[in-house]
Amino acid sequence: MFSKRILLAGLLSLSAPAALLAQTQTLDGVSRINRSAISPIYAGNEVKGYIMYAKGDKADKKNDNYLLDFYDQDLAKVSSVTVQKPAGRYYLLANSFNGSAFGLYFYNTKDNSLEIETYDTSLKKLGSKVIEEPSKMDKMKIQQAFMQKSSGSEEQAFSDMELFPVPGYGFVRNSYEGIMKGYTLEMYDNQLNLKWTLASDPKAKEYEMVNISEATDKYILATMMRKSGLMSKKIDSYMVVIDAATGKKIMDLPVETSKTEQLSLSSFTFDPAKREFVAMGEYYKLNDKPFVNKSEGFYLKRFSESGQPTLSKNYGWHNEVRAAMPAEALPSLEAGYVNYAQSIVRGANGKTYIVAEQYKVVADGVGIAMAMMGGRGVGVQKGKISNMMVFALDPSYKLTDVKFYPKDESQATLPGIGATGLMGMYLKATGQFDYQFMQKNDANSQFNAVYINYDKEKGEKTKKIIGNMAFGDNGQFKLDKIDMTSSATASYLYPAKPGYLMMLDYLKKEKKVGMKLVKVNI
Fold this sequence. Notes:
Blueprint: H1 16-21, E1 24-28, E2 38-43, E3 46-58, E4 63-72, E5 77-86, E6 90-97, E7 102-108, E8 113-119, E9 125-131, H2 136-150, E10 163-166, E11 170-177, E12 182-188, E13 194-199, E14 207-215, E15 219-227, E16 236-243, E17 249-254, E18 267-271, E19 276-283, E20 297-303, E21 309-316, H3 317-324, H4 330-334, E22 338-346, E23 352-360, H5 367-372, E24 380-393, E25 399-405, E26 410-415, H6 420-429, E27 435-440, E28 446-455, E29 463-472, E30 477-483, E31 490-495, E32 500-507, E33 512-519
Antiparallel strand pairs: 1-33, 2-3, 3-4, 4-5, 6-7, 7-8, 8-9, 10-11, 11-12, 12-13, 14-15, 15-16, 16-17, 18-19, 19-20, 20-21, 22-23, 23-24, 24-25, 24-26, 27-28, 28-29, 29-30, 31-32, 32-33
């Protein structure tokens, strides 16, 4: 599996003295930075560095300076370049690394165009590409993002505009067509030559939306939602696998493998050890509607590389899950919370671990699904995000443990009416979950899932507490809490080298960025 997780060979030859000295970095003259400005760089499963792109001070009256910095795992600066661009015109949509090149994805506000730039690991520019006529829907997505930014939602700003890194191949740009009627995926190599295009059939009557979930050694995995018309309330979930070299779909299958199933799809991933695809979501009563009614439980399905089912198991909320739940978790089940699968990992001992975060809305409906796929006339509603859980399955996929990690509720903003099945996908796409990321060692025997808890004690200011859940082949489940409360304008959290997390604080008035490695006590 790949999610910016391949290291450039040159990183391994960094000078030891520089690496030993740095555990913090302070940058002055930074006028704008958001979460997507920094991407971790991996060797195998472990972080070996970071790439950062941030807006600096003005170069002159007509030009802005942008800082492109490359750091090692200890936050020692390896290389740095300053890029000048016309003042007040460029916004970073995405920053990604595919193992050999960095990709930067911009919106040019003056020309109303999209631009991509790529750099090698020495920060030498490899290529540039201008998309002069973005689709109308892409422009609408960007305008929505600027509305979020103006309301203070900096972290969620450009989550829908993606430049997805594919190791050994390049980058995939996604584009929305019509009123969310279709999509276009474009694969570019590191020099930004177009290698292939995959798009919806413009003559098709169906509405469909694709979401890339990960890239492997030769596959690009995605989930697809389809419906028969703009106002249709029936939405079907599909598993899509694309050949990274050719752009051809080699799998496009509904997650429902029989007429007696009613399923949603929240996670689709690849198990490299068993060379199998893994799907997870919720199952419903046959006469109920996915994304509308409350589910009966969650399921796990596995498929061979040829698309043949190899496993299908259901885990009922009031049967298998309740039996394994600790007593303190039961009230959340009774309160109607739904568990969204944030990560699925398989340990070296054959056990499977599912990290989930709870959420709920008061009303049922399909407003979120319709909003995600182009529905009109939808309003705004508040949702709730709550506790963390870890489900442990033994090698035979029997549910053996459910670990419960309580945290304070946080609020979420949702379009339209709340829809239980698709709400999690919407919250994930817009960056509103408290879950941050998963870290694992190269042996796949130890895992750390990280979240943020906004601790709200009565009469006190809200604290920002990091929760680090550790589990793995030793059979132990541990929790470490770190207070990251600060007076910073914005604070972000990133994976780091084994035993650490990386924290960034941005002080807007002072135009200062502080980065530091924080040791976890597990």
